[in-house]
Design a protein that fits this description.
GO terms for molecular function: metal ion binding; transferase activity. By secondary structure, this protein is α/β, with parallel strands linked by helices. It has 10 helices and 7 strands. The strands form 2 sheets. Strands 1-2-3-7-6 form a 5-stranded parallel β-sheet, with helices on both faces. It has a two-stranded antiparallel ribbon with strand order 4-5.
Length: 275
């Protein structure tokens, strides 16, 4: 279903969950979770072939959250889709909770792979895509990386491999918000020009506004139609998107909002729901 109004509403719900979960846990990564909310919403509520009632369904599409510290956005999407009870969201990062600071495939249904060590997700996606080819399955594999994460050398080894093996069932997203834990990506270790780099590595490259659902879906359609090479969608996003005082603020990469800040954030997001 590609009802844009419905998807905007879902993305807003996810953003509310992110802020509230991290506030309650007093730790977490709001900035990069909020920036990825629209991409994750598009995948989980429209694009991917999945069944929350049968998380291990044969032929299901796979999702790899390579930037595993953005786990809150994934947890909210899974809960909203019915993989587990929403009440669990209030236990983020609590001792013994299945909702740990990074996704754990052994603790929650719907998690395809445990992630957290940056740079490894694309390699895992390659393995999933090769497995599909060997077994004759036609599922697609989606992977979400951060732009700061692209400073990891393993990403580019995996990029070479995916192009070499013509893994056209892979669709990678780069959440390009130009901020990482210590500041601006282009000042810490510049990764631009991303489009030319990925093209040089043999990928089909699409540049979009990562908060525009129509652009997201147009890119996903083009990715599905592309044969013989993997696709990367470079999504320009805003760190902390949806919460004015968090937007483009490096400090909210890994700092929980206070109770007062959370109230302000929810009030802003409620206004989006009313539009």
């Amino acid at each position: 279903m590609r009802d844009i109004n419905f998807l905007v509403e879902q993305a807003t719900k996810i953003r509310k969950d992110i802020v509230q979960m991290i506030c309650k846990s007093k730790s977490g990564h709001p900035g990069g979770s909020l920036s990825a909310a629209d991409i994750v919403t598009a995948l989980y509520f429209s694009e991917m072939n999945i069944d929350p009632k049968n998380p291990k369904m044969e032929g299901r599409d796979r999702f790899v959250l390579s930037k595993g510290h953005a786990a809150p956005v994934l947890y909210s999407a899974l809960a909203e889709r019915g993989y587990f009870d929403r009440e669990l969201l209030g236990t983020l990062r609590a001792y013994g909770s299945p909702l740990q600071g990074h996704p754990d495939m052994k603790k929650l249904p719907g998690i395809e792979i445990s992630t957290g060590s940056l740079g490894q997700g694309l390699s895992v996606a390659n393995g999933m895509a090769l497995s599909a080819r060997i077994s004759g399955e036609n599922y697609r594999t989606y992977v979400l990386m951060g732009d700061g994460e692209l400073q990891e050398g393993q990403v580019w080894e995996a990029a070479m491999s995916a192009a070499h093996f013509k893994l056209d069932s892979i669709c990678a997203f780069v959440d390009s918000n130009n901020l990482q834990i210590d500041g601006n990506v282009d000042k810490i270790m510049g990764v631009e020009p991303l489009d030319k780099k990925w093209e040089a590595f043999g990928w089909n490259v699409i540049m979009i506004d990562g908060h525009n659902f129509q652009e997201i879906f147009d890119a996903l359609d083009k990715a599905r139609e592309t044969k013989g090479q993997p696709t990367v969608i470079i999504a320009k996003t805003v760190k902390g998107k949806g919460v004015s005082f968090m937007e483009n603020v490096c400090g909210f990469h890994g700092v929980a909002p206070t109770c007062e800040e959370t109230e302000r954030a929810i009030a802003e997001l409620e206004k989006v729901s009313e539009i």
